[in-house]
Amino acid sequence: MKLLSRTLLLVFVVACNSPQAVYDYDENVNFSNYSQYALFPEFRTGLSQLDEGRLIESLNTHMREKGFSRSSSPGIYVNVYVEEFQRDNRSRVGVGIGGGGGNVGVGVSGGIPIGSMDNYLNLTFDFIDVKEDALVWQAQVETPFNPNATPEQRQAQFNKIVEEALQGYPPKK
Fold this sequence. Notes:
There is one protein chain. The chain has one domain (19-89, 114-166): Double Stranded RNA Binding Domain, CATH 3.30.160.670. It has three helices and eight strands; from the N terminus they run αββαββββββα. The protein is elongated, with a radius of gyration of 22 Å. Helix content is 28%, strand content 39%. The protein is an alpha/beta fold. The chain has a six-stranded mixed β-sheet with strand order 1-8-7-4-2-3, covered by helices on one side. The protein has a two-stranded antiparallel ribbon with strand order 5-6. The longest helix is centred in the first third of the chain and has 17 residues, at 49-65.
């Protein structure tokens, strides 16, 4: 029983901390036509130069795993842009006061926030048909992000983000 409860707790923690992806695509596109890619000519993610390099390294690795090769005359451009934001961590300490008598009760309570805001990244991956100049596939990944992480931890996180994003490619019609 102890093992089961620990396993369920671990699954819950991992599920809450893993990147979550949402996919969209053009239903009229034959994705088997694409085998070569290049980064979008104006590729600028909004990340620091070091983090952008980590993201590009992860992207190149996972694109090779999907059967793509980089080319100067690609079928698709890959563009990624990033939005950093903070979200309330929802940790609170409750404080309440109340009183009553004679079938009447009154109470007042409130929550005091604990800790700081949580940092998140929202990454949008666009696959753009070069000839048609049209967006054909898109993934959006939202994930918690630790700005104080080590370079190795950041690379591991970008690997997970890109892997999650590319799980939906090619789309299953």
